[in-house]
Design a protein that fits this description.
- Keywords: Membrane, Transmembrane, Transmembrane helix.
- It is built from six helices and no strands.
- It is mainly α and about 130 residues long.
- Helix 2 packs across helix 4 and helix 4 packs antiparallel against helix 5.
C-alpha cells in the first residue's frame, strides 16, 4: 500500500481547513492586491482632510496612530500565518519529490554503487529516514 504524507491525507478528505485558515487565506489575497492599498490611501487622505473637524491636533494624530498600529499588528500576524503555511507546504512538496527521486535512484542502483551512494546521501540530506 502506498504511504501518503499527512499533508496529502488532509487533502483527500475535502478542504479540511478551519474557518481561521480560510479567513487567513481570504485576508492574504485581499491585502496583497491593489484595491486594498487604494482603500488604505483613501483612509489616510480622509484623515488628513479631517483636521478642521478635530479640536485638538494631538487627538487627531492619536486617532490615526492607534487605529493604524492595531490594524498593522493584525495584518502582520495574518500574513505571517499565511507565509508559514506556504513555507510548510513547499517543504512538504520538496520532501516528497526528494523521496521519489531517492526511491528511483535506489531502484536503478542495483548494479551501480555510485547511484546507491547518491540515493543514501539524498535521504541523509533531507532526513527522510527519520520521518518514516
Amino acid at each position: 500500500m502506498e504511504q501518503r504524507s499527512e499533508a496529502a491525507k488532509d487533502r483527500t478528505g475535502g478542504d479540511g481547513r478551519s474557518v481561521f485558515d480560510r479567513f487567513v487565506e481570504f485576508a492574504h489575497h485581499t491585502v496583497s492586491r491593489a484595491p486594498f492599498f487604494v482603500v488604505c490611501a483613501g483612509i489616510v487622505a480622509l484623515w488628513l482632510i479631517s483636521v478642521p473637524l478635530w479640536t485638538d491636533l494631538k487627538t487627531w494624530q492619536a486617532a490615526i496612530h492607534t487605529v493604524g498600529s492595531v490594524f498593522t499588528l493584525l495584518v502582520v500576524v495574518l500574513l505571517e500565518n499565511a507565509s508559514r503555511r506556504a513555507s510548510e507546504s513547499s517543504h512538504e512538496k520538496l520532501n516528497v519529490m526528494a523521496e521519489a527521486i531517492a526511491a528511483l535512484l535506489e531502484s536503478s542502483a542495483r548494479d551501480d554503487p555510485e547511484l546507491r551512494a547518491a540515493a543514501e546521501r539524498l535521504r541523509d540530506a533531507v532526513g527522510l529516514e527519520e520521518r518514516h
